[in-house]
């Protein structure tokens, strides 16, 4: 902690109440950023379920059609649709998270420019965002594999 007397500590507007308000504001930005990460995590979980179910359903019905020649292709199409929906949801979640992070950075920079908070922080990619992008790459590979198998 800081051992300097209160009079020597850099306070915003030389006011302890403004300083406390600034600290609460800074912490609220951190809570908001963590909330955005939790939202992205829930989007990743939901899209992963859609992608997993879609790939599994497509694979099961694809193997069944090899055993039973006249089976309807509805199951295969359903699997492909779920896989595609999962990918679309993941793309929208990643885009929304990145857009929100940039907007949050701009708001915090603005408060710093107005000397209402001490530090401007640029929010960078979080582990959640990195995992979401890697999952998107894996899902696109799975979609490519499904489409390649359908055409061959």
Could you explain the architecture of this structure?
It is a single chain. The protein is mainly α. It has one domain (12-151). The protein is 77% helix and 0% strand. It contains three helices and no strands. Helix 1 (16-67) packs antiparallel against helix 2 (74-113) and helix 1 packs parallel to helix 3 (127-151). The model has no long low-confidence stretch (mean pLDDT 85).
Considering the chains and any ligands shown, give keywords for the structure:
mainly alpha
SSE inventory with pairings:
Blueprint: H1 16-67, H2 74-113, H3 127-151
- Mind telling me the C-alpha Rg? 24 Å
**H/E order of the elements?**
HHH
Largest sheet: none
Q: Note the total helix count.
A: 3
Share of β-strand residues = under 5%
- Helices and strands: which structural class? mainly alpha
Number of domains: 1
**How many beta-strand segments?**
0
Q: Unreliable stretches, pLDDT < 50, 5 or more residues? A: none
- General shape: rod-shaped
Helix content class = over 70%
Overall average residue pLDDT: 85
User: What's the end-to-end separation, in Å?
Assistant: 67 Å
Question: TL;DR?
Answer:
The chain is an all-alpha fold and 152 residues long.
């Amino acid at each position: 902690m800081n051992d300097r007397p209160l009079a020597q500590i850099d306070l915003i507007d030389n006011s302890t109440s403004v300083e406390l308000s600034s600290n609460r504001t800074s912490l609220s930005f951190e809570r908001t950023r963590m909330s955005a990460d939790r939202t992205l995590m829930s989007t990743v979980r939901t899209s992963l379920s859609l992608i997993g179910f879609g790939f599994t359903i497509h694979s099961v019905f694809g193997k069944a059609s090899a055993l039973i020649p006249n089976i309807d292709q509805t199951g295969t199409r359903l699997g492909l649709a779920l896989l595609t929906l999962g990918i679309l949801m993941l793309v929208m979640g990643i885009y929304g998270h990145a857009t929100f992070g940039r907007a949050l950075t701009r708001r915090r920079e603005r408060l710093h420019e107005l000397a209402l908070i001490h530090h401007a922080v640029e929010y960078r990619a979080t582990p959640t965002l990195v995992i979401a992008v890697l999952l998107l790459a894996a899902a696109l590979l799975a979609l490519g594999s499904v489409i390649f198998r359908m055409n061959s």
